[in-house]
């Protein structure tokens, strides 16, 4: 008979707090990475300015990280994060500096853009700016991000049929604005 019987206890290795945070940060970054390009496209569609869009997406990513514990476990990251991007774009448009006249920056790559193409892009931007925010958001989600109606509905906070109607009406308003800009004055 052995002199002492040692009870074998399972050894649980606990990560120090900083290692756990690093592991969590890496996991969050891996989950968020595929959403950054669609988020940037969404922000460009909402703000119509690449620089502001980049800032909005960066700030939204930081806000998502800070509020990651507020996300319900059953909620997918995509709609939750894109909702944060939309809110950040709204905040950016409401800020005092968004009312300052922004002049077009010269193209640094020296590439020339055909006048017709540049003019048509300016017409589309002007028509998008003229749309109400909710209508612009519907168009951007559908045609810039190519999201299905179910995801658009989740982001807009409405039923799938209501999302389809909102997109349809927004496109009709966009067409009307585009046609109005073609009429010589």
Structural summary, described in words:
The structure is a single chain. This protein has 185 residues and is mainly alpha-helical. The chain has 2 domains: 18-95, Rna Polymerase Sigma Factor, Chain: A; 120-185, Arc Repressor Mutant, subunit A. Helix content is 66%, strand content 0%. It has helices at 17-32, 36-47, 50-66, 77-94, 115-130, 133-144, 149-156, 160-182.
What share of residues are in beta strands? under 5%
Rounded to the nearest angstrom, the distance between the terminal CA atoms is 107 Å
> Could you tell me the number of beta strands?
0
What is the rounded Rg?
24 Å
Number of helices: 8
Uncertain regions spanning at least 5 consecutive residues:
101-108
CATH class of the largest domain: Mainly Alpha
CATH superfamily of the largest domain: RNA polymerase sigma factor, region 2, helix turn helix motif
Calculate the mean pLDDT score and round it: 80
Shape: globular
Largest sheet: none
Q: Tell me which CATH architecture of the largest domain applies here.
A: Orthogonal Bundle
Please name the CATH topology of the largest domain. Answer: Rna Polymerase Sigma Factor, Chain: A
Order of helices and strands: HHHHHHHH
């Amino acid at each position: 008979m052995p002199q002492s019987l040692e009870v074998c206890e399972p050894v649980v290795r606990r990560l120090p707090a900083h290692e756990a945070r690093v592991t969590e940060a890496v996991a969050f970054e891996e989950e968020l990475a595929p959403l950054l390009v669609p988020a940037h496209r969404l922000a460009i569609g909402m703000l119509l300015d690449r620089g502001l869009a980049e800032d909005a997406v960066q700030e939204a990513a930081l806000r998502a990280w800070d509020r990651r514990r507020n996300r319900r476990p059953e909620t997918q990251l995509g709609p939750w994060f894109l909702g944060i991007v939309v809110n950040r774009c709204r905040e950016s448009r409401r800020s005092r500096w968004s009312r300052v006249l922004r002049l077009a920056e010269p193209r640094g790559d020296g590439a020339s853009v055909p006048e017709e193409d540049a003019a048509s892009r300016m017409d589309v931007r002007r028509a998008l700016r003229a749309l109400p925010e909710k209508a612009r958001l519907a168009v951007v989600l559908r045609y810039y991000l190519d999201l299905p109606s179910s995801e658009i509905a989740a982001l807009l906070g409405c039923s799938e049929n209501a999302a389809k109607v909102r997109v349809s009406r927004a496109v009709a308003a966009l067409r009307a604005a585009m046609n109005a800009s073609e009429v010589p004055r």
